[in-house]
Write a structure and sequence with these properties.
Number of helices: 0
Order of helices and strands: EEEEEEEEEEE
Strand content: over 45%
Distance between the termini: 40 Å
Shape: elongated
Length: 122
């Protein structure tokens, strides 16, 4: 199977920046899709940003121009640079990855990280 480990969350004042990282490990053959989702208290998990293996990106309207997603394919790592943070960005941020891993046969995987807390004070 494939495991995702996130890091980089924390407490920051409004207007500040944070950089989240997510590293995938396991017998990975390819990761086609990586992304970040967030879940605020009492709300459903929602998309923040995604990036394909070719570098195509997609952002939630609320973060366009403030957040940047990038990935290091050689190290199976995805990043989320978060600038101009707002109190409404406060949430647990989850990393997601989908692709293929090797076992006795080639298998598809879809994995979530454990989540990292981002808190933005006003």
């Amino acid at each position: 199977q494939v495991q995702l480990v996130e890091s980089g969350g924390g407490l920051v004042q409004a207007g500040g920046s944070l950089r989240l990282s997510c590293a995938a490990s396991g017998s990975i053959l390819s990761i086609n899709y990586m992304g970040w989702y967030c879940q605020a208290p009492g709300k459903q998990r929602e998309l923040v940003a995604t990036i394909t293996s070719s570098g195509r990106t997609n952002y939630a309207t609320s973060v366009k121009g403030r957040f940047t997603i990038s990935r290091d394919n050689a190290n199976n790592t995805v990043y989320l640079q978060m600038n101009s943070l707002k109190p409404e960005d406060t949430a647990v941020y989850y990393c997601y990855a989908g692709g293929y891993y090797s076992g006795s046969v080639r298998k598809a995987f879809a994995s979530w990280g454990q989540g990292t807390q981002v808190a933005v004070s006003s």
